[in-house]
Design brief:
The complex is a heterodimer of chains A (about 110) and B (about 120).
Chain A (H helix, E strand, L loop, with lengths): L8 E4 L5 E6 L10 E7 L6 E4 L13 E6 L2 E6 L8 E9 L3 E4 L3 E5 L1
Parallel strand pairs in A: 1-9
Antiparallel strand pairs in A: 2-6, 3-4, 3-7, 5-6, 7-8, 7-9
Chain B lengths: L1 E4 L3 E3 L5 E8 L8 E6 L5 E8 L4 E4 L8 E5 L4 E6 L8 E9 L2 E5 L3 E5 L2
Parallel strand pairs in B: 2-11
Antiparallel strand pairs in B: 1-3, 3-8, 4-5, 4-9, 5-6, 7-8, 9-10, 9-11
The chains are: A mainly beta (about 110), B mainly beta (about 120).
Chain lengths: ~110, ~120
């Protein structure tokens, strides 16, 4: 399966909200969709922010939220902070295709 | 939970390589370990995954036959192996522990450089 499609870059000012899209999400035969989002700072390993479309692991700020409509998932970051500047990757899982990642989006905090 | 990967490698084309990922702080046999590639300046690509408890292994169609994934539950270690490296294998390789349908914990990454 081809990689999921994300915008190459997005930007926003501190305090603003931004949304990163991820297109090409498939559902499995039961109609379930499993989408996760990862944050990666330069030189660091990815870190999960969102799983199962809109759930946050323990310790992840409520400023990060996820949603899905049709074949497009979205990650919204509210109240942008300088530390949010990083690369963001979406990922989908189905039993047939297993894991596929997006190409990544570079977030610049102006 | 901690995943510690082996150190950076510099290899020549055609050489073989084995990199490792050692888990601690949990029952290693009970969780799938996946491998993810990140080529220089590029995105993430899923290579495959293994369940150390019984060595059940799945590969991405893009990487089937290109790499071999194995695990030794007695040493809590998963491996990613190549028999003949090429320049296009130059990348950072991450191991990550699966939780349901996502990767919850990641290793620090192993940089593999293949150059003549």
């Amino acid at each position: 399966q081809s990689a999921l499609t994300q915008p190459a870059s997005v930007s926003g000012s501190p305090g603003q909200s931004i949304t990163i899209s991820c297109t090409g999400i498939n559902s499995d035969v039961r109609g379930y969709t499993y989408v996760s989002w990862y944050q990666q700072h330069p030189g660091k390993a990815p870190k999960v922010l969102i799983f199962d479309v809109n759930k946050r692991p323990s310790g992840i700020s409520i400023r990060f939220s996820g949603s899905k409509s049709g074949d497009t998932a979205s990650l919204t970051i509210s109240g942008l902070q300088a530390e949010d500047e990083a690369d963001y990757f979406c990922s989908s899982y189905t039993r047939s295709t297993v894991w596929v990642f997006g190409g990544g989006t570079k977030l610049t905090v102006l | 939970v901690q995943l510690v990967q082996s150190g950076a490698e510099v290899k020549k084309p055609g050489e073989s390589l084995n990199i490792s990922c050692t888990g601690s702080g949990y029952t290693f046999s009970n969780y799938w370990i996946g491998w993810v590639r990140q080529m220089p300046g590029k995105g993430l690509e899923w290579l495959g995954i293994i369940f150390p408890g019984d060595s059940d292994t799945r590969y991405s169609p893009s990487f089937q036959g290109q790499v071999t994934i194995s695990a030794d539950k007695s040493t809590n270690t998963a491996y990613l192996q190549w028999t003949s490296l090429t320049a296009s294998d130059t990348a950072i390789y991450y191991c990550a522990r699966r939780m349901d349908n996502y990767f919850e914990h990641w290793g620090q990454g192993t940089l593999v450089t293949v150059s003549s």
